[in-house]
Design goal:
The structure is a single chain. The termini are far apart. Among the domains are: 184 residues, Chondroitin AC/alginate lyase (Glycosyltransferase); 79 residues, no CATH class. β23 and β24 form a beta hairpin. It is an alpha+beta fold. The radius of gyration is 28 Å and the shape is elongated. The model has no long low-confidence stretch (mean pLDDT 96).
């Protein structure tokens, strides 16, 4: 395939130059500042060495492709495998390996694969976001093979073909942008990257202005007022944020001014990143995504904007200033965090943390059916977890294969209550895949309270798939443990299943112990307890956790079940570092006037906590249905939603809270 004449690619004076002159110029050029963008998992030396033998390992599937293989044929049943092949992450990986070793085999393989792709793949073969990622990776490879090193085997003829194809891909991308959301952000970043890295291209100045304008519009439409990305996926939030930070960093390097409103949106997104990271430095995998760490983005945010709290969290408390807010509400995104601290009095990673979902499904098709679910971590470990996404691949029903996509996305795969085995939203097979076909559940946040040593959340879920209403209250006591109070109400009987998904580290190490007054689940570093109730059945069942795409690990699931019209579950989640606490639960009667309250109307109990020689008693009175008269529990008369107080072993009141 002959490249176009340089005059059609470049502005004056470069348009009249030969391939040899162009290669010499770009090798010596120092007026443009850019950097390679590397995906650590895809650009390792091990990956690069496998590519030398045409062995491609993506998404936990490894195939050896014959030289001259058909780029349009997918050896995998999962389309995502072919998509990663065409994204060309390995081109940057080959460049990095060459820079470190000067081994010409890496350059030769880069040219071979690039030339093969140029010669055989039609423009627009896969969706536009694939082109966006490929452009980013081709420019990153260019950084290593041309800008940083005068690669001996690189020929002017190949370089002309490379530049011609790169320019054509950017032109195609500009004309075929994804209309909205995270793919559009990626594609606009790729256009911006090309415009900065190659200002010699004829349309570069137009691309730059177009990308600046559209990136602002994209940020304004997709980043909600509280900073959460509109798809409401913690992983995709950070992928989008990373692309915006690339833009901001590249603009700063080249003295390009970006709109102040774009910087403001980036700062908002960084704030959610700061609070959503768990104390161990990883993010929860809420709604289609992997877990993993994006602390490098906070470090980049500090470098760009000088915010010392970003540096503090990025360094796990070793530098900078701790954030002012311990717990945070992101009401537009529907995420709410509770945290014991920022490492001021104990190791940063040991702090206790919970993130609660009381929001919409999210724009696009990444939302999981997980309203009122949460993830919890303590002492450097994730203990109650969101299992993740595992895969986007859905086998056809006639194949008889398990549809893991629907299982990981369904309500039962989350830490919430399932009614009659149904998802919170109708999720049905349509043409080739399962689609959300029903109306999303209604959600309502009734309270978010954060005080010194005490946090309280109250959310409501109303599904259109059944007539039961789910109310969940989460109380974080003294930065130590949680009480999860679930109340279900309906005019009809239902099966209610309360799920807690534990970490894969708890697999084969989790047990149920039934005592006279308490049902206790013992897992590594976690005690889960409920008061014994003959109406509630408890068991462990197998589950899975997926930390990254294509990987799943066996993990235990704790399940509580009862059948009723109105029902309640009151669960203690008590994490510990080394010494397991001894817990005792004593119920108490609650009256409204002279009428004894049902558990779904009001609940009271005393939790005795013995840790070593220390003993405290925590007293709770939950009022689930407000009445005109005060509620009475023993000598306590109370009108509100929650009354809590702590006493020492001698009965002296230490602290109290009222909501």
């Amino acid at each position: 395939m002959k490249p176009r004449l340089a005059s059609t690619l470049f502005r004056s004076p470069f348009g009249g130059w030969s391939p040899t002159e162009l290669l010499a110029y770009f090798r010596q050029r120092r007026s443009v500042h850019y950097f390679p963008v590397l995906d650590e998992a895809q650009t390792s030396r091990a990956k690069a060495d496998e590519i030398l033998s045409n062995r491609f390992d993506f998404n936990q599937e490894r195939y050896e492709l014959e030289p001259g293989f058909d780029w349009t044929a997918n050896p995998s049943a999962d389309i995502e495998w072919l998509i990663v092949l065409h994204k060309f992450y390995y081109s940057a990986g080959l460049g990095l390996a060459f820079d470190e070793t000067r081994d010409e085999r890496y350059a030769a393989k880069w040219m071979e694969l690039t030339d093969s792709w140029i010669a055989t793949v039609p423009m627009g073969f896969l969706p536009s976001d694939v082109a966006g990622r490929r452009i980013q990776n081709w420019i990153s490879a260019h950084y290593y093979f041309v800008t940083l090193n005068a690669t001996p085997s690189l020929t002017p003829e190949f370089y002309a073909r490379f530049l011609n194809s790169l320019c054509e891909q950017v032109r195609h991308l500009v004309a075929n942008l994804t209309p909205v959301r995270n793919h559009r952000t990626l594609e606009l970043w790729a256009i911006f990257f090309a415009a900065i890295a190659f200002p010699e291209f004829r349309e570069a100045s137009q691309w730059l202005e177009f990308a600046k304008r559209e990136l602002l519009a994209n940020a304004q439409s997709d980043i909600l007022p509280d900073g959460v990305h509109c798809e409401l996926s913690t992983d995709y939030h950070h992928l989008v944020l990373r692309n915006f930070l690339y833009v901001a960093r590249l603009a700063k390097l080249n003295n390009i001014e970006l709109p102040a409103r774009l910087h403001a949106k980036i700062l908002r997104a960084l704030d959610f990143s700061l609070h959503s990271h768990k104390p161990d430095g990883n993010i929860p995998s809420l709604s289609d995504g992997d877990t993993g760490s994006f602390l490098s983005l906070l470090r980049r945010g500090h470098e760009l904007y000088g915010d010392k709290t970003m540096l503090y969290v990025a360094s796990s408390g070793r530098a900078g200033h701790s954030p002012v807010c311990r717990s945070r509400a992101f009401k537009d995104g529907g995420y709410f965090t509770q945290r014991s601290g920022w490492g001021e009095l104990e190791p940063f990673a040991d702090e206790r943390y919970l993130i609660f979902d009381c929001g919409a499904l999210g724009a696009g098709n990444h939302g999981h059916l997980d309203l009122l679910s949460f993830e919890m971590a303590a002492y450097g470990q994730s203990l109650v977890v969101d299992p993740g996404r595992f895969t986007y691949h859905e086998p056809p029903p006639e194949s008889g294969e398990t549809n893991w996509r629907t299982l990981f996305r369904g309500t039962a795969a989350h830490n919430t209550v399932v009614v009659d085995g149904k998802n919170q939203t109708r999720y049905e097979f349509h043409k080739r895949k399962f689609k959300i076909k029903g109306e999303a559940p209604d959600h309502e946040l009734k309270a978010f309270v954060t005080r010194n040593g005490f946090d309280y959340l109250h959310g409501v879920a109303r599904s259109h798939e059944y007539n039961a209403t789910h109310e969940r209250r989460i109380v974080f006591v003294a930065g130590e443990y949680w009480v999860i109070s679930d109340v279900l109400r309906s005019c009809d009987e239902h099966d209610y299943d309360l799920y807690f998904h534990l970490s894969d580290k708890a697999f084969d190490r989790t047990f149920i112990a039934n005592q006279s007054e308490i049902v206790q689940v013992d897992a590594p570093h976690l005690v889960i307890a409920q008061r014994c109730d003959p109406k509630i059945k408890t068991w462990l069942e197998p589950g899975f956790v997926s930390p990254t795409y294509g990987v799943k690990h066996a993990a235990p699931v704790v399940r509580f079940n009862q059948r009723a019209a109105d029902a309640s579950f009151h669960t203690i989640l008590f994490p510990y570092q080394t010494e397991r606490p001894e817990l005792t639960l004593e119920p108490a009667e609650v009256f409204n006037g002279e009428q004894l309250c049902l558990p779904e109307e009001a609940t009271a109990f005393c939790l005795t906590i013995k840790c070593g020689a220390d003993i405290v008693k925590d007293h709770f009175l939950f009022v689930h249905q407000r009445q005109s008269e005060p509620h009475r529990c023993g000598e306590l008369r109370f009108q509100g939603a929650l009354h809590f107080f702590r006493t020492d072993f001698a009965g002296q009141r230490i602290s109290q809270q009222t909501i």
